Amino acid sequence: MEHFPAPLENLVEQFARLPGIGGKSAQRLAFYVLGLPLEDARAFADAILDAKRSVTCCPVCRNFTAGGLCPICASPKRDHSTICVVADPRDVAAIERSREYNGLYHVLHGVISPMNHIGPDDLDIKSLIERVAAGGISEVIMATNPDTEGEATAMYLARLLKPFDVRITRLAYGIPVGGHLEFADDATLMRALEGRRDI
Amino acid sequence: MEHFPAPLENLVEQFARLPGIGGKSAQRLAFYVLGLPLEDARAFADAILDAKRSVTCCPVCRNFTAGGLCPICASPKRDHSTICVVADPRDVAAIERSREYNGLYHVLHGVISPMNHIGPDDLDIKSLIERVAAGGISEVIMATNPDTEGEATAMYLARLLKPFDVRITRLAYGIPVGGHLEFADDATLMRALEGRRDI
Question: What is the ipTM of this complex?
Fold first, then answer.
């Protein structure tokens, strides 16, 4: 089946390992990269190595950062008494885009998932407990995804944090803004009714 | 909008430049690569540079090769009097997979496409004419895609090769094997009827 030169086959295989990239897409991407000017291909390769080399996890919140304390943990303008717990650095980016939150974060880098053999020890949970135990925290907002695993992880953390004198909250459930009632699933509608507020 | 460290943003952008990769996919891929062990990320970067460095075009047929004459042009077992003209190295791979063809190839690296400002001079056409002019060729099979541009390119080449004493053929049109008549378009059905054969 080997009809391309070995270095090209190898590049196709490398692309095929990426999540969501099938065989045909991998070929398409490898051929595209082969057609790039040398400096563009080099920039791509350098970007991979550079990201691996210089992106680390913030020693406090475990969010990705380019070395040392992340800009959010380092900022005196943020409310250092509130921690928003998320599963993934992309969730930090999503919440930051809303411009509604001014506290700190804690990135778990995953959720508890027995199906995938991911237990509490595989996540950045110990560092969260230490942060709360060190004091100065008044509220921990559980912002894991509203699915079974996100929910279970939030409940697990809430139990762990119970001994400490902190308010533990969960993001509100409800109809997404701009969404249509008729397309909302039953569970979401039920939560939206439960969480109804006076206007 | 910059909520990731710069090297990570840069990697996301690099992925987003690839064809068919949108913003969300680019993020997913960049995060995946960041999560790889260092040696795997390095292997990916090396594969890009290695492919760019060592994959060249065969001086005869213009197919991709890892330096020098390609294995097909170099093989004494192939029929050196037949040339199959294709638009893309991937078409060579597709025809080789069929194990039905034993001649040589010529890769144009594109098709004539006035819409995309690709003229005959942008393709590897001159080298094809030179191969045929050098003699020893009895048949040239036009195997460009059966779409408007592939068709026009095949017709253009057929005209250029007319002065030479070679048979010029085109791949047969028809119903794809395993296909359903009811799903075949009118043009394909018409061609299939035109090209009907005795059984």
Answer: 0.79
